[in-house]
Amino acid sequence: VLNVFVFFGGGGGCYNAVIRLSFQCLPQQEIMKWNGWGYSDSKFLFNKKGQAEFTGKRYRLSGMILPSLQDWFENTFGASVKQHKSPATPSLNAGALPPANLNEAFLQDLTATGIPFSHEADDRVFRAHGHCLHEIFALREGRGFQRVPDMVTWPNCHNDVVKIVELACKHNVCVIPYGGGTSVTGALECPPEEMRCIVSLDTSQMNRILWIDEKNLVARIEAGIIGQDLERLLNEGGYCTGHEPDSMEFSSLGGWVATRASGMKKNVYGNIEDLVVHIKVVTPRGVMEKSCQGPRMSTGPDVHHFILGSEGTLGVVTEVTMKIRPIPEYRKYGSVVFPNFEAGVACLREVAKQRCAPASIRLMDNEQFQFGHALKPQVSSIFTSFVEGLKKFYITKFKGFDPHQLCVATLLFEGDRERVLQHEKQVYDIAAKFGGLAAGEDNGQRGYILTFVIAYLRDLGLDYYVVAESFETSVPWDRVLDLCRNVKERIIRECKERGVQFQPLTSCRVTQTYDAGACVYFYFAFNYRGLADPVHTYEQVEHAARDEILANGGSLSHHHGVGKLRKEWMKESISDVGLGMLRSVKEYVDPDNIFGNRNLL
Amino acid sequence: MASTTLYSQRDPMLKKRDDFEDILEERRNSSDLKYAVRCYAPVLYKGLTPCKANMLKSMVLQSDHLRYVINQVSQESGEAPDIIHEEASVILEEMAHRLKISTVRFFAFTLTKAFKTLFQHICVNEEGIHRLQQAIQEHPVVLLPSHRSYMDFLLMSYILYTYDLALPVIAAGMDFMGMKFIGEMLRMSGAFFIRRSFGGDKLYWAVFSEYVKTMLRNGFAPIEFFLEGTRSRTCKSLTPKIGLLNIVMEPFFKGEVFDVHLVPISISYERILEESLYARELLGVPKPKESTSGLLKARRILSENYGSIHVYFGQPVSIRSLAQDKVNRCKYNLVPRHIPRKPTKETQSFVTDTAYRIVRLQEDSMVLKPWVLMASILLQNLEGLELSLLTEQTLWLRGLAQSCGAFLDWPDHTPSAKVVSSSLALHRGLVCVSGGRVSLVLGEPQGLVTPEEALFNRAVSVLSCASYRNQILHVFIRPAILAVAIHNAASSKKDEVFNCFSFLCKMFSDEFILCPGDTVQDFEEACYLLVKSGSVQTLQQNIVVTDRGQSTLSFLNGLLESFLQGYQVVCQYFCEEACDSLTEKQYIPAVRSFAVKLILAGNLRCYEVLSSDMQKNALAALLRLGAVSKVKVADQVTLKVNKLAVNSLEDTLGGRLPTQKAVLARL
Question: Per its UniProt entry, which superkingdom is the organism in (chain A) (predicted)?
Answer without folding.
Answer: Eukaryota
